[in-house]
TrEMBL record:
SMART domains attached to this UniProt entry: WD40 (SM00320)
Subcellular compartments: Nucleus
GO annotations of cellular component type: nuclear pore outer ring
Protein name (database record): Nucleoporin 43
PROSITE patterns assigned to the protein according to its UniProt record, in alphabetical order: WD_REPEATS_1, WD_REPEATS_2
Region (Disordered): 1-48
Organism: Accipiter nisus
Record Pfam families: WD40 (PF00400)
Main location: nucleus
Domain of life: Eukaryota
Biased composition (Low complexity): 33-48
Annotated Pro residues bias: 1-11
Signal sequence bounds: none
């Protein structure tokens, strides 16, 4: 999905250019398919996806997919995830949809659903879906290019979606009360009941799901576009912006200034995505317009610990595996999706039987936890320790979003398709 960039770009080769959505008038360039072969990382071994693709189910949905998110599992759950949500963009009629990973009545020997993803319900969404996060197992928070933030409730008894709460123009350029002037809400993160949003307007909002008005707003948090946000700790958030900065905000402090600022050196390319290590919270990964993967240690210094050559174009999302963070996943405008594996022994794959919810931590070996830290924070994390796999052998259009939970991966593309891999670590 093209985001803010140097100017309007051409449409994909072979297609007539589509009109730029209001929020994305600055469309980043599209790369020709011939140039979409992923570069080698900074050392480490690379291999193309082969047998792994056999486990991938594709569903063509006639709309460009901007976001994909697994529904979280109960903390004690042993089964793999079974439902996910998607949002669309750059369509005349954008939608938020809930899917089953397979046919509900078609269950395999292991209890898993079989067949292609099945649409359970959907609802129209005003504007492009810029981000989405599950608040709990029934509610999902959606950020719009219009600046509005909506909480949708999934009614599982009759498989419908309804708007449960809405904050109109949570983000805006000039005046919240005018008929126009909404600024895109670019990122949202949830820690039930709290919801944090960031936007093109450089504003940070803190909402509670059960309250009509914002709990707190930092109006001039940033002079540039904020592209993404995540929780660092319960009371601290991380934001990334369009001038290569990573900022830490302590929501307990009343002053409207970041408690810490880290930044790229040299060309300050926009950062589009951020995630933090689920167990070692000082380790943070970001991706940006140049496709580079940056690893940061927020305890020391103001620059990344590692800069790794990755994609040929913008990196749209980066995610540590929530329960096995020696695995990291990135996706890009160049049509690739990379799996970064820093396991000390590649042949010694971790068990995913106890993945539980996102907050659950489970390692098959007690030594993995320490090896992960040393691998991600070493000066050359790829040296003899990293295997990088492109999970999409035939790259076409942008891979805009991915989500990983247990052994399951879901991702969405501008090729109007969603893909589910239920045996990622087989």
């Amino acid at each position: 999905m093209a985001g803010p960039g140097p100017g309007p770009g051409p449409g994909p080769a072979g297609r007539a250019p589509r009109r730029a959505p209001p929020s994305l008038s600055l469309r980043a360039r599209r790369r020709a398919a011939a140039n979409q072969q992923a570069r080698g990382g900074a050392g480490g071994s690379r291999r193309a996806a082969g047998a792994a693709m056999e486990d991938v189910c594709a569903k063509f949905v006639s709309q460009k997919i901007s976001k994909t998110r697994w529904r979280p599992l109960p903390a004690a759950a042993l089964q793999p995830p079974d439902l996910f949500a998607t949002g669309s963009w750059d369509n005349e009629d954008n939608r938020v949809s809930i899917w089953s990973v397979g046919e509900l009545g078609n269950v395999g020997l292991g209890g898993e659903y079989q067949g292609e993803p099945q649409l359970l319900c959907d609802i129209r969404h005003n504007g492009d879906v810029m981000d989405m996060q599950f608040l709990d197992q029934e509610r999902i928070v959606v950020a719009s290019s219009t600046g509005t933030v909506t909480v949708f409730r999934h009614h599982q008894n009759n498989q419908t979606l309804s708007a449960n709460q809405r904050w109109e123009k949570a983000h805006y350029h000039v005046d919240q009360n005018t008929s126009c002037g909404g600024a895109a809400c670019t990122g949202v993160i949830c820690n039930n009941p709290e919801i944090v949003t960031v936007g093109e307007d450089g504003r940070i909002n803190l909402f509670r799901a059960d309250q009509k008005d914002a709990v707190r707003t930092i109006d001039n948090a940033d002079s540039s576009t904020l592209h993404a946000v995540t929780f660092l700790r319960t009371t601290e958030i991380l934001t990334v912006n369009s001038i290569g900065q990573l900022k830490i905000w302590d929501l307990r402090q009343q002053r409207n200034e970041p408690s810490q600022i880290l930044s790229l050196t040299g060309d300050r390319v926009p950062l589009h995505c951020v995630d933090r290590h689920p167990n070692q919270q000082h380790i943070v990964a970001t991706g940006g317009q140049d496709g580079m993967l940056s690893i940061w240690d927020i305890r020391q210094g103001t620059m990344p610990v590692s800069l790794l050559n990755a994609h040929e174009a913008e990196m749209w999302e980066v995610h540590f595996h929530p329960s096995n963070p020696d695995h990291l996943f990135t996706c890009s405008e160049d049509g690739s999706l990379w799996h970064w594996d820093t396991s000390t022994d590649i042949s010694e794959k971790p068990s995913f039987l106890h993945q539980g919810g996102r907050s659950t931590t489970y390692f098959s070996h007690s030594t993995i936890n320490q090896s992960v830290v040393s691998a991600w924070l070493s000066n050359d994390p790829t040296k003899d320790r990293m295997e990088i796999t492109n999970l999409i052998p035939n790259q076409t259009l942008s891979v805009n979003s991915l989500d990983i939970l247990g052994p399951c991966l879901v991702y969405g593309t501008d090729a109007e398709a969603i893909y589910v891999n239920r045996q990622l670590f087989a």
